[in-house]
Specification:
This protein is an alpha/beta fold. Helix content is 18%, strand content 36%.
Length: 226
Amino acid sequence: MSDLISIKGGRDGLQMRLDDTAEWTTLLTQLEHRLTQNQSFFSGARLTVDVGDRALSAEQLAAMLELMQQHGVQADALAARVRESRNAARAAGLTARPLPRYPEPAGAAPRSEGAGDSEALFLVRTVRSGQVVRHSGHVTLIGDVNPGGEIIAGGSVVVWGRMRGFVHAGALGNANAVVCAIELAPTQLRIADQIAAGSREAPRTPEIARIEGGQIVVAPWEALKR
C-alpha cells in the first residue's frame, strides 16, 4: 500500500503520482493517510496529479479534489493517458496534460516519495516574507531566507546565506535530512517530526542541524571534518 502514491519534484513543481491499478477507495484512503501524515509538507501546496492509465470519472475526480482541498492542497493540473480522465479534468477547471503512450520498464522498482527520486532544486534568489519554496527533494539556495519566508523540503536544505525564516527539512519523514546555513537563525527549524526552538542568535560561521538522539542538535560545520 505504501507504493500506491509517490511524490516527485522537478522543474515543473510537485507531481503526485497515483497507482492506476489499485482499487479507487483504497487509493483515496491511502491519499488521506499521506496528506494527514505529512500535513506540514502538503498544506498550501499546488501540484499536478498523475493518474496514468486510469479512466477517472467526474465523480471520482470530484471526490479526490474535495479530499485534497480539505487538507489545504490545490491540484493545478491532471496528467493522464486516458481521454476520459483528461475530459473530466477540463470539466473541473483543471489543466489536462497527456502522458506518453509507453509503459515503464518491466521489473522497474516502485517509486517512493523519498528525496532520492526527485531532482535537487537549486535556486539563486532571496526568499522574502510570504514566499514559500516547497520541493520533494533536496534544496540548495544561494541567497537569504528572510523572516516570514519558508523552505519546506523532503530532503536536506542548504542555504548559502542567512536562514532567518521557517525551514523544514525531511518534511516527508526523512530523519536523515540536515539543514545547513552560513548564518542559521530560523524562526522555526524542523527536521522530519522534530522541532527546534527558533529565534536563536547564530554565530557568523556555517552551522549544520541534524537529528541526534531523538532531537535536533546544531553544530559548527567544521565539526563534521574532525
